[in-house]
Automatic annotation (TrEMBL):
SUPFAM superfamilies: HlyD-like secretion proteins. It comes from Inhella inkyongensis. Gene3D superfamilies: 2.40.30.170, 2.40.420.20, 2.40.50.100, Helix hairpin bin. GO terms for molecular function: efflux transmembrane transporter activity. This is RND family efflux transporter MFP subunit. Residues 56-187 form the Multidrug resistance protein MdtA-like barrel-sandwich hybrid domain.
Length: 348
């Protein structure tokens, strides 16, 4: 074939070629966006708390000589957390033990003397007054021995105060001391909380609280840091009102195994009431979302072609998420975002 003719046919062939992805118009799985009716919810700010949170403080004075845990460590009940210098207490306990031994020896001597005096009195060699004096000395020695024994037990108990142990299984939340610090009675040494029992405390206006608590199933707790919305297992209304803010405190228990942490921000979602409790919203499946860096969007079908639309999202409910801006009712939502994304890359 003539080379010139071949060169002339190449542009015609290229113009007639169509990529396989565009050779036939694809059939898309779509969903017509229609506003869904969902309950209006009032939101009240709250905070995650631990039902059991303990500040362990020193009962005696002493330098911190050992710290067996770190911040965030999980500990078991009875586990050693910290140890204070107990040398002075140990020496005091040993001195008390020695005094107990001396008191017991004095008691034994007084008892023997009293028994001899009883025998002499029975034989008529001593007066009743001498016997009474021996009995009094014996009782005094016995009382002194009991007092020394109690003091020794108290000294031994104080040596145990130099060992700080966990009262229950939990997580170390705060550790405000370091090795060498001086512990004083009442000074906080460590904060421990139980991660298995968490709750959310939220303040509710008195006027709304006066209407009574709704059904537990209608209350929800939003945890923005975790991207979760959970249902409380129990709700408690405290019988006191804050005179400054005119609010009532509610405590709502989180489900067991929650990944929330004390101090995290939370929201109480309170169900609306009356005719204004319903409002139409747009909801899309979470599987239809695509993410590009910090932006999130969906694909809609425009004139038979997929078009990426950036959206602003709101709350999540199950497998659906609320769309606040970027879409409108009646548009065709593509349910195959990955396929639409690949097609866009081919057509570029």
């Amino acid at each position: 074939m003539n080379a010139n003719l071949l060169l002339a046919l190449i542009p015609l062939a290229l113009a007639a070629w169509v990529p396989p992805a565009l050779a036939a118009e694809p059939t898309w799985r779509t969903q017509t966006l229609q506003p869904g009716t969902v309950p209006v919810e009032q939101r009240f700010e709250g905070v995650v708390e631990a039902e059991r949170q303990t500040v362990l403080a020193a009962q005696v004075a002493g330098a911190v000589v050992e710290i067996a845990v770190k911040l965030g460590d999980r500990v078991k009940a009875g586990q050693l957390l910290m140890r204070l210098d107990a040398r002075a207490a140990e020496q005091g306990a040993q001195a008390s033990e020695a005094q107990v031994q001396a008191a017991r020896a004095g008691l034994a001597l007084a008892e023997q003397s009293f028994q001899r005096q009883q025998q002499l009195r029975a034989q008529g060699f001593i007066s009743q007054g001498a016997l009474d004096q021996a009995e009094a000395q014996f009782k005094s020695a016995r009382a002194q021995a009991q007092a020394q024994l109690a003091a020794a037990q108290a000294a031994r108990s104080q040596t145990a105060w130099h060992r700080v142990t966990a009262p229950y299984a939990g997580v170390v939340a705060e550790l405000p001391v370091a090795l060498g610090d001086m512990a004083l009675p009442g000074r906080p040494l460590l904060t421990l909380f139980d991660p298995q029992a968490l709750r959310v405390s939220a303040s509710l206006p008195q006027a709304l609280a006066a209407q009574g608590l709704p059904a537990l199933e209608s209350l929800r707790i939003e945890l923005p840091a975790l991207g979760q919305t959970v249902q409380p297992t129990r709700v408690q209304r405290l019988p006191l009102a804050d005179p400054g803010s005119q609010t009532v405190l509610l405590r709502l228990d989180l489900p067991a195994g929650s990944a929330a942490q004390p101090g995290q921000f939370a929201r109480l979602l309170w169900p609306g009431q009356g005719a204004a409790a319903e409002t139409p919203r747009l909801w899309v499946p979470q599987t239809a979302l695509v993410q590009r860096a910090e932006l999130r969007g969906v694909y809609v079908l425009v004139q038979g072609q997929p078009q990426l639309r950036w959206v602003r999202l709101g709350r999540s409910r199950g497998t659906f998420v609320e769309v606040l801006a970027g879409l409108k009712a009646g548009e065709q939502l593509l349910l195959e975002p990955q396929r639409a994304s690949r097609l866009n890359e081919v057509t570029r």
